[in-house]
Design a protein that fits this description.
- This protein is an alpha+beta fold.
- The chain has five helices and 16 strands.
- The protein has helices at 47-52, 62-68, 110-127, 201-213, 275-284; strands spanning 10-11, 24-28, 33-38, 41-43, 72-77, 80-86, 97-100, 140-141, 148-149, 156-157, 162-171, 174-180, 191-194, 217-228, 233-242, 255-262.
- Strands 1, 2, 3, 4, 5, 6 and 7 form a seven-stranded mixed sheet that branches. Strands 11, 12, 13, 14, 15 and 16 form a six-stranded mixed sheet that branches. It has a three-stranded antiparallel sheet with strand order 8-9-10, with no helix packed on it.
- The two termini are 19 Å apart.
- The mean pLDDT is 95.
């Protein structure tokens, strides 16, 4: 899964440190990240590359460029840091670069995929909290923990991590598989959804399966979890068994398809990114 990057080590503890030229840099315009693009795909630029592409820094020494760098530290993997620099929505991407959504990180190597997606998760949270939700004042970043603080009223906002459940529902040798209408990937996956206020994870799992597929479940068992920066989420995965009638009543507003698929008809799924694929593979090999 995306967070399983061993032997690499993620250190996402809050700290303040100065950038180096070979550190990674996420340039964020409020909705997308600035990435290098060539015929082989996307890559995260370094601080040095971002500074070199800045026409305003032309003629300055390396020391002067680093001193003027407006980014701030987010995290590191194997000691190599990821920095974040916010820019205006109308900031023009330099030649060889492109602003793109978080899905681009999924095609990168494990370090850039995990580090970049996590950095973009933080960037999105910061971009949404430039102003205080209580009094409307301009906010500042906390200097002792990862937080956003209103210097006027003292309101503190912490990173947004929305809980999600995903369920592999077994019906003998068949698995309940579905396709969400918002997913550009045409393959079938599993029933999932956000946890509502006041719900337990278990209650959310039962509700989501009933809402989206119209069937009931029993023997719900915890499988595992994973961070999912692409929707600012933490996903809890479960397995379950069909309870009663197996007639599917698809929620058309959410799903374009939902059906029972026999174990032998399920193709292999790559397990290096999502817990959904891990749950599917787990069923295939029972």
């Amino acid at each position: 899964m995306i967070h399983e990057i061993a032997p690499h080590v993620l250190d996402n503890q809050f700290k303040i440190q100065d950038p180096k030229l070979d550190d990674y840099c996420i340039v964020y315009n409020g909705s997308k990240s600035l990435l290098k693009k060539d015929e082989s795909g996307y890559a995260i630029p370094t601080v040095g590359e971002v500074l070199a592409a800045d026409v305003k820094a032309a003629g300055k020494s390396t020391e002067e460029k680093l001193a003027d760098f407006e980014g701030h530290y987010l995290l590191n993997i194997d000691g190599r840091a990821f920095f974040l620099q916010h820019v205006a929505e109308d900031f023009c991407a330099p030649a060889g670069y492109e602003f793109t959504g978080n899905r681009a990180f999924r095609g990168m190597n494990p370090v850039e995929r995990m580090g970049g997606a996590t950095a973009a998760h933080i960037a999105h949270w910061e971009a949404l909290n430039k102003f205080c939700g209580r009094c409307g004042n301009i906010t500042i970043r906390g200097d002792k923990e990862r937080s956003i603080i209103c210097p006027k009223c003292g309101n503190i906002v912490y990173p947004r991590i929305s809980p999600v459940v995903i369920v592999a529902v077994h019906n003998g040798d068949k698995l309940l598989m579905a396709h969400n209408i918002d997913n550009p990937n045409p393959r079938l996956f599993l029933i999932s959804g956000f946890v509502e206020v006041g719900e337990s994870l278990e209650q959310a799992a039962h509700r989501e399966v009933l809402e989206e597929a119209g069937v009931k479940i029993k023997n719900l068992k915890y499988f595992g979890s994973q961070p999912w920066a692409f929707s600012d989420s933490l996903i809890a995965g479960f397995t379950a068994e069909l309870d009663g009638d197996d007639t599917i009543h698809r929620q058309e507003a959410e799903l374009s398809e939902a059906k029972w698929v026999k174990r032998e008809d399920i193709p292999p799924y790559e397990t290096d990114v999502s817990i959904s694929c891990c749950l599917i593979e787990n069923f295939r090999h029972i």
